[in-house]
Amino acid sequence: MFVLVNLIVMLGMLFVVPAGLHLVDPVRLAPVRRTWPLFAVPGAVALWLPRGGAAAALAVVYALGTLLLAAEAARRLAATRSLVPAEIAVLTALVTPSVAGLALVAERAGHELFGFTLPILALTVPHFHFAGFAAALVAGLVCGRAAGPLARFAALSVPVGTLTVLGGYFVDDWAELAGALVLTAGMWAVALVTWHDIRGAERDRSTRALLAVSAIVLVATMLLALSWAVGEAADLPHPDLTWMAATHGLGNALGFALCSVLAWRRIKDMKESAV
């Protein structure tokens, strides 16, 4: 399972995050994007080393890069006059990789941080790259492009759901289920607005196809996440972590995050070329 998880995390570190930063603010975040490989490459190498000092040291380098993103979130928040839903989602996207960075350091050092087992810490890393950074980013982009209450609901509920899931880690499975319910509702709202409003407004066939895949996959992967959370909370049969990594994790990484980032990059490029 962890070979697959490591590959998913590498996709997030090396492509999704820097590509997402270009979508957030290509000018202000350009210095961070240029230096990002200095943080992401050591982080990627740390994934494959045995747990210990060397792996932990490289993970610390990556964690420092995620703190730069959190610092950018603080800067944006200080400069924001009106905290609209889309901006809340973008701020969440910039902050959540730091949770992944902290979990990576602890897991690579072999330290059960806050009592969480090493496998759970290892899975926290991809979760906050994709259910954190990518999901909140796309929710913010969708809300910034589409008008209406459903888009605003998506931009607010994805951050709330993500943070509630994080808080649920420290409470119990029922609190985590509450977060999963909110996050699932928000992601399904993202999928619906993407399919109906964003995809429908695009004429480029490749962009439409990428948006369609991201929306369809998102419905399925969040249903899997919800079934797992219900099973954990109510002690009912549910997919194990290996199955979740191979379905929910891989689907979110490739079908949702990768396709979404590629689609929004095409949308941004075509908009800039038309100006």
Commentary on this structure:
This protein is mainly alpha-helical. The chain has one domain: Cytochrome c oxidase-like, subunit I domain (Cytochrome C Oxidase, Chain A). Helix content is 85%, strand content 0%. The chain has 10 helices and no strands. It is globular. The N and C termini lie far apart (46 Å). Keywords: Membrane, Transmembrane, Transmembrane helix. It holds the Pfam family YndJ. InterPro entries: YndJ-like. This is YndJ family protein.
List the keywords.
85% helix; 275 residues; 10 helices; mainly alpha; Cytochrome C Oxidase, Chain A
Mean pLDDT: 92
Question: How much of the polypeptide forms β-strand, as a percent range?
Answer: under 5%
The assembly state of the depicted protein chains is single chain
What is the CATH architecture assignment?
Up-down Bundle
State the CATH topology.
Cytochrome C Oxidase, Chain A
Overall geometry: globular
Give the class from helix and strand content and strand pairing: mainly alpha
**CATH uppermost class:** Mainly Alpha
Radius of gyration: 18 Å
Level of helix content? over 70%
Number of helices: 10
Order of helices and strands: HHHHHHHHHH
Uncertain runs with pLDDT below 50, 5 residues or more?
A: none
Strand segment count:
0
Major sheet description: none
- When the domains are counted, the total is 1
* CATH homologous group name: Cytochrome c oxidase-like, subunit I domain
Transmembrane segments: 53-71, 83-106, 118-143, 150-171, 177-198, 210-231, 243-264
Protein name: YndJ family protein
Pfam families: YndJ
Organism: Streptomyces xantholiticus
